[in-house]
Amino acid sequence: MLSTKERIIAAAANLLDSGGPSAVTLRAVGDAAGISQSAPYRHFTDKRALLDAMVRHIIQQMRTAVDTARIQAATPLAALSLVVGQYYQFARRFPARYRLLLEESRSDNPVGTEARQAFMTVADLVEDAQRAGELREGDPAQIVAIIFGAVHGMADLEQFGLVKVAPEADSEGALPGLLVEILSRHTQRAGA
């Protein structure tokens, strides 16, 4: 069972998904969570504090995805592919949450720092794949920038109706897998 605070965060995320940042008010969140309109104020001082809590929740999900991929995947490259696929799915399913995370990662506040660090956990997967000889040597941060640029771009192109992803490709994570495969093939050619 979710705590009241967790219910508030979940309700805020749903409002963000359906109406964007302007739809997230503490009163609307109270209504959506099925609690009094004033109850969110007992947990969050203002809308900014609530948005920060949502971002922290997303960051924790990102870290869990990376940790799980490391355990489940047979190789470092497979772990990277799994995580890239999860990021892509998140960006597609929850574009407003993904944009909030990206916007927050630009800020200099503590949550922005946490968001940047969370994105860079993928650099650890890149380094693992480099050590295993599955990806070319180079600055992991630059490789992560390429990965996230492609993931964000693919999600945006689909959201704006400029590309159509087949349901089977969507469920299989084919596009992110293709991105990682392209990166790994570049390594094989460069190392040959």
Summarize the structure.
One of its GO terms (molecular function) is transcription cis-regulatory region binding. It contains nine helices and no strands.
State the major sheet: none
| SSE arrangement, N to C | HHHHHHHHH
Question: Rg, please?
Answer: 18 Å
Strand content: under 5%
Helix proportion of residues, in percent? over 70%
Termini distance? Answer: 55 Å
User: So how many helices?
Assistant: 9
Q: What is the CATH architecture annotation of the largest domain? A: Orthogonal Bundle
Could you tell me the CATH topology label of the largest domain. Tetracycline Repressor, domain 2
| The CATH H-level homologous superfamily of the largest domain | Tetracycline Repressor, domain 2
Shape descriptor: elongated
Structural class: mainly alpha
Number of separate domains: 2
The residue ranges in which pLDDT falls below 50 over 5 or more consecutive positions are 188-192
The overall pLDDT, averaged over residues, is 86
